[in-house]
């Protein structure tokens, strides 16, 4: 595999038993993923930046959770409106300090 | 958040619309996650190593997929029996070369 520059994981609260439920999902996880994909396409970041939804990360009280690797930046209480700012920060090799948990 | 030493993502083929289906799930993704959790507990790696299931990573032909961050090691065609060897390698700061994609 070509190495990604950034891999964004968005908690979608999926359970392995086949249900999607839980705090992050209620709180716009689907829109967060869609917005990341839109930003990645608009900025031609395909192949450099990938977004993947995840199962529950276990810190629901701070959800919706977004983790960016390899830098391991943990963001909490993310909204779909925060996505553009997060991608701006990625492109500048910076972080959105107000969302860090 | 305390930084994890390793974060293991296992493709569980979850779709954000609330279904779990697809190649990785058919191919033992659930057992792979359970085995990782068992190894993490047996070796007292809680807080250092975390395992999270993910939605489809889009490379189903090489599934089941496991990605380990921050080193971004992509493993393919992983079986539940490979988990112990992957965790051995993590503890030794090495990789399981035969599974790398």
UniProtKB/TrEMBL annotation, chains A, B:
GO terms for molecular function: iron-sulfur cluster binding; metal ion binding. It holds the Pfam family 2Fe-2S_thioredx. Signal peptide: none annotated. This is (2Fe-2S) ferredoxin. InterPro entries: Thioredoxin-like_sf. The lineage of its organism: Bacteria, Bacillati, Bacillota, Clostridia, Eubacteriales. The keyword Iron applies. The keyword Metal-binding applies. PANTHER family: NADH-QUINONE OXIDOREDUCTASE SUBUNIT F.
């Amino acid at each position: 595999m070509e190495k990604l520059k950034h891999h964004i994981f968005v908690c979608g609260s999926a359970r392995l038993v086949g249900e999607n439920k839980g705090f992050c999902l209620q709180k716009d996880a689907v829109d967060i993923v869609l917005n990341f994909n839109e930003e990645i396409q608009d900025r031609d970041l395909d192949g450099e930046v990938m977004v993947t939804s995840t199962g529950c990360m276990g810190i629901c009280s701070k959800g919706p959770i977004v983790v960016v690797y390899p830098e391991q930046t943990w963001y909490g209480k993310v909204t779909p409106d925060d996505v553009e700012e997060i991608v701006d920060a990625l492109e500048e090799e910076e972080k959105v300090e107000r969302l860090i948990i």
